[in-house]
């Protein structure tokens, strides 16, 4: 029989062994599953968010190329400009947006547009897409709110019962649409309903233009429309939001990689423990005539099988983890950066990336261990002294590697100027500390032995020295988990402190109130009557343009 057949037969022996000792296989699978779950879960969340920045368009429409808006924070456009653009043959979409309160005092961001113009902007619109929309109700001006199915459930509505929402004193029916229609977390209304609700009758928040940006600019220049004093903004494909949220996603990636590293240590510890328990079995296989090459091949096949099973289970759990993280991340990004996240879509490439990275890391960690085991003499299979000497050599090499990483971190620290570089140095420090642990313990115990009194104290120190070698990896894994926990807390704490420092710098008052349109006079009267001694300051947004304030 060739080595491949012998290796396959040995693998069947290992499977029979795991049926008798399932905890050994469970420990390895636990590490792989944990590593892949956290790595892919965080990656899926980040990738979906970045994809939303780059591809999110207007509600029920494609991504616009240009935007026409008025200068000033709350300034609006006259809707006659939209009709003039349409007469020029320019593909445009009128948009009104704003914040409005419901009957319970909750604030909602609503968007309104011309439903026909929105659907006309889609390049590959099909009747099946429109079949999901209540076009008759929208075109007849019925009070109807459209939300994505995910947002519908987040609002607490049941799929089997009719849903209603009171906005601005008007009762509206709520209908959910599939997440694939890219509404995100927006509440969409037809413009004929949204304008009265936002008190913007005859006004627009901005106008979205579709087509080639250069051609649109040429058309606008030739149209002689009254565009002076208006802002013309080009679509940046989410580049501004991607740059703005880079540190946020970098922190998430760093936490995912740290958790991946901890999971790999757990898996490696499980492999080492399993090999320790199977030393007698492996020795018997060698004595029965199994070649060392076939033994090595069987161990590699076993590792490949465990990584494949663990990666697939971890991939499924990662999708669920991303499903749980997505709403929290969406709320954070919406409140901090004003981003709109689209529903997430999973990709098979994530499974390949997670499994490939796990397999490479597992091979780098386990192949030296397998080679040691396969090259061991059959007659020396149970010699204790040889194993101890081998452990000492490994501990010295780990100590040298950890020291080298510490020196490298110290040398590169003065040149660290970016957030990503600081995170990389933190990762090197997190890995270096556990590598120093076995040799430090051995050296410390050796120095303590002459100082300890004879009897039980010296026996305890000697016993601890004996247990350091077999338990070194477990202690390194625990220390790595502790270092990773401290590193994660440092990442989260630094992000939180930076954000709070920025907010404290920008926000000087204890309470900020931003009343809606027409509510300022009533608020001033209320404060004058009820809190006449309360210090308050008023702010009016505006823009200086060509020496005139608008």
Textual characterization of the structure:
The protein is α+β, with helices and mostly antiparallel strands and 550 residues long. 62% of the residues lie in helices and 11% in strands. The protein contains 18 helices and 13 strands. The chain has helices spanning 3-20, 22-55, 80-87, 115-120, 127-131, 135-139, 149-154, 191-197, 213-223, 239-244, 246-277, 279-287, 292-337, 348-375, 384-412, 419-448, 456-506, 520-530; strands at residues 66-70, 77-78, 92-101, 107-113, 144-148, 163-167, 170-177, 187-190, 203-204, 206-209, 230-234, 544-545, 548-549. The protein has a six-stranded mixed sheet with strand order 8-4-3-10-1-11. Strands 5-7-6 form a three-stranded mixed sheet. Strands 2-9 form a two-stranded antiparallel sheet. The longest helix has 51 residues, at 456-506. The chain is elongated. Residues 125-131 and 543-550 have low confidence and may be disordered.
């Amino acid at each position: 029989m060739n080595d491949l057949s012998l290796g396959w037969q040995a693998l069947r022996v290992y499977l029979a062994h795991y049926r008798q000792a399932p905890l050994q296989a469970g420990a390895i699978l636990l590490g792989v599953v944990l590593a892949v779950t956290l790595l892919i879960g965080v990656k899926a969340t980040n990738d979906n968010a970045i994809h939303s920045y780059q591809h999110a368009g207007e509600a029920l429409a494609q991504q616009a190329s240009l935007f026409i808006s008025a200068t000033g924070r709350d300034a609006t456009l006259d809707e006659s400009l939209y009709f003039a653009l349409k007469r020029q043959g320019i593909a445009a979409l009128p948009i009104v947006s704003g914040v409005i309160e419901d009957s319970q005092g909750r604030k909602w961001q609503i968007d309104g547009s011309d439903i026909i113009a929105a659907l006309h902007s889609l390049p590959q619109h099909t009747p099946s897409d429109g079949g999901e929309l209540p076009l008759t109700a929208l075109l007849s001006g019925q009070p109807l709110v459209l939300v994505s199915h995910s947002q519908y459930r987040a609002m607490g509505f049941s799929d089997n019962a009719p849903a209603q929402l009171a906005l601005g004193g008007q009762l509206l029916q709520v209908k959910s649409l599939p997440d694939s229609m890219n509404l995100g977390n927006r509440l969409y209304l037809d413009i004929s309903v949204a304008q009265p609700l936002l008190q913007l009758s005859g006004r627009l928040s901005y106008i979205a233009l579709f087509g080639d940006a250069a051609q649109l600019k040429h058309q606008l220049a030739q149209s002689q429309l009254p565009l002076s004093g208006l802002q013309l903004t080009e679509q940046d494909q989410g580049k501004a939001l991607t740059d703005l949220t880079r540190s946020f996603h970098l922190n998430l990636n760093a936490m995912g990689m740290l958790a991946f590293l901890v999971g790999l240590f757990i898996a490696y510890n499980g492999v080492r423990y399993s090999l320790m328990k199977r030393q007698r079995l492996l020795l018997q296989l060698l004595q029965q005539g199994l070649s060392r090459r076939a033994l090595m091949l069987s161990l590699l096949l076993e590792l490949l099988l465990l990584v494949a099973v663990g990666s697939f289970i971890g991939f499924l759990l990662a999708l669920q983890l991303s499903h749980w993280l997505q709403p929290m991340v969406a709320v954070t990004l919406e409140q901090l950066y004003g981003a709109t996240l689209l529903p997430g879509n999973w990709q098979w490439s994530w499974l390949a990336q997670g499994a490939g990275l796990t397999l490479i890391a597992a091979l780098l960690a386990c192949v030296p261990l397998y080679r040691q085991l396969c090259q061991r003499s059959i007659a020396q299979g149970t010699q204790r002294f040889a194993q101890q000497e081998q452990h000492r050599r490994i501990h010295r090499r780990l100590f040298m590697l950890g020291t080298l990483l510490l020196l490298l971190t110290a040398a590169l620290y003065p040149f660290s100027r970016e957030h990503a570089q600081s995170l990389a140095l933190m990762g090197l420090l997190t890995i270096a500390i556990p590598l120093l642990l076995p040799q430090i313990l051995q050296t410390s115990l050796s120095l303590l032995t002459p100082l300890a009194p004879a009897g039980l104290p010296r026996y305890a120190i000697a016993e601890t020295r004996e247990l350091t070698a077999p338990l070194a990896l477990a202690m390194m894994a625990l220390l790595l988990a502790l270092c990773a926990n401290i590193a994660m807390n440092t990442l989260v704490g630094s992000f939180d402190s930076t954000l709070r420092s920025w907010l404290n710098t920008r926000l000087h008052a204890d309470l900020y109130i931003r009343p809606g349109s027409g509510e300022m006079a009533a608020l001033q009267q209320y404060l004058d009557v009820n809190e006449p001694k309360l210090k308050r300051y008023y702010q009016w947004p505006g823009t200086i343009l060509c020496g005139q304030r608008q």
